[in-house]
Design a protein that fits this description.
Layout (H helix, E strand, L loop, with lengths): L1 H75 L2 H28 L1 H9 L5 H7 L2 H17 L4 H21 L8 H35 L10 H38 L2 H20 L6 H17 L2 H28 L1 H9 L2 H10 L3 H16 L3 H26 L1 H27 L5 H26 L4 H20 L3 H11 L11
Helix pairs in contact: 1-2, 1-5, 1-6, 1-7, 1-8, 1-9, 1-10, 2-4, 2-5, 3-4, 4-7, 5-7, 6-7, 8-9, 8-15, 9-13, 10-11, 10-14, 11-13, 11-14, 11-17, 12-13, 12-18, 14-16, 15-16, 17-18
Length: about 525
């Protein structure tokens, strides 16, 4: 029972922290966008596209290796072995982080000139480079604490990181009003580097205190074959994630280049890229934070039910995840679409962002189902399939962008995003059906929620027009409350509502007997 309480406590902490961090990040992004403008946000996004590849190289494989090996060694109750393995992982993370930092700083000029097509990115790439060793070390510390089922240190470091980043940004940006975009972005990413460093140091301090209690005075002695064990976990994950990240980075670099071919204006292409990726997409992805409890609490159970052969339990879990992901995404996407232009004016004072919100909000169920489907497949042991689909998706997006954007500009890229998200979601759904043998309930999971929202929107928006609220804020608040409330009301007596009530009323029951 204590294990269940710890599990639920950790899930609640992670969920609350995720919501706070996502909300704080959204507020900070709105503030930064207001001062940088769409063109500056485009440059900012390009910089982080290149930085993301270096960060993946520094952290991806070593993070997973730390979690798995720390869990294995801690379970053996031999402190010296665990200390030795952790020591090797920390040294590997340090070397990886340093190599990534040196490479990014040394290649800043050619990357900015030939890959990003904007020399203004050079100062920011150089300023960001020192953060990579700290990120790599922090990933090992977090892996250790996940293996220990202690989420507190990681949460504290994330909160510290966000607080430092916000504080420095709010202090620096007003003073940078007269600077050009290159040095304003460099000042902003400097806040990122310092916050990463402080967060890693705080996490390292907690790690050292905890390991003193766990390992005591045991001499560090990594067992023979530790390097091989690390390589077996590290190498395939590092290679796969770096390839995936490289393709996503290539796409982000390609979009402004294709827009330039269509618009013949570098500033306008960066402005459109920044308005979409730096301003509209954070709004569209923000509601996904509320699905974190679903992933945290139910998806580990998918793995357990699959391994033990609990067919009925697995079908119930997958059905609930698919149903409630779609219910929430239909509601979130519908409300964003109905209030796209008022939201754009409220957040960014820029109606052009409203067009992107309106165009992409209907495909939000595809985005969210793609992410949750990917998690379900990993719970079913289908990591190879998810990696394959990710590569296919990246190649498809790049090919379509090259074909459509030079002729149609940003309209072509919006088509790319529609095709990509719908295709990825369908691939995941069909794979889940094939692997688990669970039939897809197309009407109950997908079509019925969409029809219910359409009915709620028709009634709710009619009431909003009758009320004639003054101002964008009042309009958005009334629209969300009326349409969202009607959607929930319409939902209750039908199948999805009955399933929701059943889940909330469900009591603990004995575990099913594993099937032979």
């Amino acid at each position: 029972m204590a294990g269940v309480r710890v599990y639920l406590k950790n899930a609640a902490i992670l969920t609350a922290t995720g919501l706070v961090l996502r909300a704080a990040g959204m507020v900070l992004r709105v503030y930064v966008a207001g001062l940088l403008g769409a063109g500056g946000m485009g440059l900012y996004q390009l910089i982080f596209s290149a930085y993301g590849l270096a960060a993946t190289a520094a952290t991806a494989g070593v993070s997973v290796a730390a979690t798995r090996l720390a869990a294995e060694e801690l379970a053996r109750l031999v402190p010296g072995r665990a200390a030795g393995v952790m020591g090797q992982l920390i040294r590997l993370a340090g070397w990886l982080g340093m190599a990534a930092a040196v490479a990014q700083a040394a290649l800043a000029v050619p990357v900015a000139r030939y890959a990003l097509g904007d020399m203004r990115a050079v100062p920011s790439l150089v300023v960001l480079a020192p953060s990579l060793p700290f990120m790599a070390l922090a990933s090992v510390y977090r892996g250790y604490f996940f293996a220990r089922q202690k989420v507190g240190p990681g949460v504290k470091s994330q909160l510290l990181e966000q607080a430092v980043r916000m504080g420095l940004t709010l202090a620096v940006l007003p003073a940078a009003g007269g600077w050009d975009a290159a040095w304003t972005c460099a000042a902003l990413v400097g806040a990122n580097t310092l916050s990463e460093a402080l967060a890693a140091l705080a996490l390292g301090w907690d790690w050292r205190r905890d390991t003193r209690r766990v390992f005591g005075a045991a001499a560090s002695a990594a067992p023979a074959g530790t390097g091989r064990r690390i390589r077996q976990i590290f190498a395939p994950i590092e290679a796969g994630r770096c390839l995936d990240s490289a393709l996503h980075t290539a796409e982000n670099m390609l979009v402004p280049a294709c827009l330039l071919a269509y618009l013949a204006s570098r500033e306008e292409s960066l402005a459109q890229f920044g308005a979409l990726k730096g301003m509209a997409m954070p709004v569209l992805l923000f509601p996904f934070s509320f699905l974190t409890p679903l992933a945290t609490l139910l998806l580990p159970e998918v793995t357990r039910a699959h391994i033990l052969g609990w067919r009925e339990r697995l079908e119930t879990l997958v059905g609930r995840i698919m149903l409630f992901t779609n219910l929430f995404s239909v509601l979130a996407g519908g409300l964003i679409a109905l209030n796209a232009y008022p939201l754009a004016r409220l957040l960014y004072h820029d109606e052009s962002v409203g067009l992107y919100l309106l165009t992409l909000a209907p495909v939000l169920p595809g985005m969210y189902l793609d992410a949750m489907g990917d998690s379900i497949l990993k719970g079913l042991g289908e990591e190879v399939a998810t990696f394959r689909y990710s590569i296919w998706d990246s190649v498809l997006r790049i090919a379509l962008a090259l074909a459509l954007m030079p002729c149609f500009g940003m309209a072509g890229f919006l088509v790319v995003m529609w095709v990509s998200n719908v295709t990825s979601a369908l691939l995941n759904i069909f794979r889940i059906e094939k692997v688990s043998g669970i039939p897809t309930r197309w009407f109950g999971w997908f079509f019925q929620p969409a029809l219910l929202f359409a009915a709620a929107a028709a009634v709710g928006q009619s009431l909003v027009r009758l009320a004639c609220p003054a101002g964008d804020l009042a309009r958005v608040a009334l629209s969300v409350s009326l349409t969202g409330g009607l959607f929930c009301l319409f939902l209750l007596p039908l199948g999805p509502g009955r399933q929701l009530r059943a889940m909330l009323a469900e009591k603990p029951r004995p575990a099913p007997v594993a099937q032979k």
